Amino acid sequence: MRAAVIEPDGSLSVRGIDDPTPGPRDLVLRVTGCGVCGSDVAARGAMPAGTVMGHELAGEVVAAGAEVAGTWADGSRAAVLPVFACLNCDACRTGHVAHCTNAALVGLGGGHGGFAEYVRVSADLAFPLPDSVPDAHGPLVEPFAVGLHVARAAEIVGGDRVLVIGAGAVGLTTATWARQMGAGSIVVSDPAPARRTTAETFEVDATHDPGAGPVEGSFDVVVDCAGKPGLLDVASAAASTHGRIVIAGVCYEPDTYVPLVPMLKELSLRFAIYYQPGEFQTVVDAFASGAVDPALLLTRTAPLSELEALLTRPHPDDLKVVVDPTL
Ligand SMILES: [Zn+2]
Ligand SMILES: [Zn+2]
């Protein structure tokens, strides 16, 4: 099959590799689309030679392992929680499969990912796509599951005033779920004008340019989806008394903050990453019912040959580019 493979010199080449074969509880999917993620850009340099990346994927079943062939007919379509997990440890039994002690992350070093014609995935973590969900929306289940997990970590309830820092895919999917959970108002803050314009298409109440000064008002929930040093202080200043802060932006740098402000407000601070199987099902159901329109997230579709450019020079205004390996 054709796949985008990381070579020993770190470059990416689209070339032939062996087709995957399913284990007893695996599926092999013909990839119908695989989204490019900020974590692909960040993690690429750490991936060993031979890796095929891509974890925001959906596809059509072309082979099923012996134990799951009865439930997965050839041609059925699925979105995938991109993990191989034991399903038996404490983390797995409580639904936190990405925290499995033996978790292998598909496309991030734990098995070839979706930037290929075919991919092997766990049937136990594959979610059937109803006919009402088109192929183009399948790869968007994963990023919307990220946002749902963040919004749930924030314990958003009806009427909450919500500030989302960062108008990327995580921020705007989080804002989408905040709306679904009944948030009273949603403000999205981002320094990039084009990203603020995109945010307005997501039915947020207002956007804010942090370059123009601190955001006005105080917020029951502040979600950091940008991952920059200094944002904990920004979030603490914006939060109301007894507010909740969720850190969902990936930050590799040390950060300092002044503990007095969150203390005086008795703020709660949580961190959020990944998702749970139930959240994937909730996303699929919301796509199918029309409660959530995933098309808002999709910037464009690109061929495999463009992946190198998408990973080395990601355009800051791209919300979500999906690679279609058939192009
Ligand atoms: Zn991702
Ligand atoms: Zn486990």
Structure write-up:
The protein folds into 2 domains: 2-144 and 275-323, Quinone Oxidoreductase, Chain A, domain 1; 155-271, NAD(P)-binding Rossmann-like Domain (Rossmann fold, 3-Layer(aba) Sandwich), CATH 3.40.50.720. The protein is an alpha/beta fold and 327 residues long. β11 (185-189), α5 and β12 (206-208) form a beta-alpha-beta unit. α3 (141-153) packs across α8 (277-289). The chain has helices at residues 38-43, 90-93, 141-153, 169-180, 193-200, 231-238, 260-264, 277-289, 307-312, and strands at residues 2-6, 12-16, 26-35, 56-64, 77-80, 83-84, 104-105, 118-122, 126-128, 161-165, 185-189, 206-208, 219-224, 239-247, 268-271, 300-302, 321-323. The chain is built from 9 helices and 17 strands. The longest helix is centred in the middle third of the chain and has 13 residues, at 141-153. It is 23% helix and 25% strand. Strands 3, 4, 5, 8, 9, 16 and 17 form a 7-stranded mixed sheet that branches. A 6-stranded parallel sheet has the order 12-11-10-13-14-15, sandwiched between helices. Strands 1-2 form a two-stranded antiparallel ribbon. The mean pLDDT is 96.
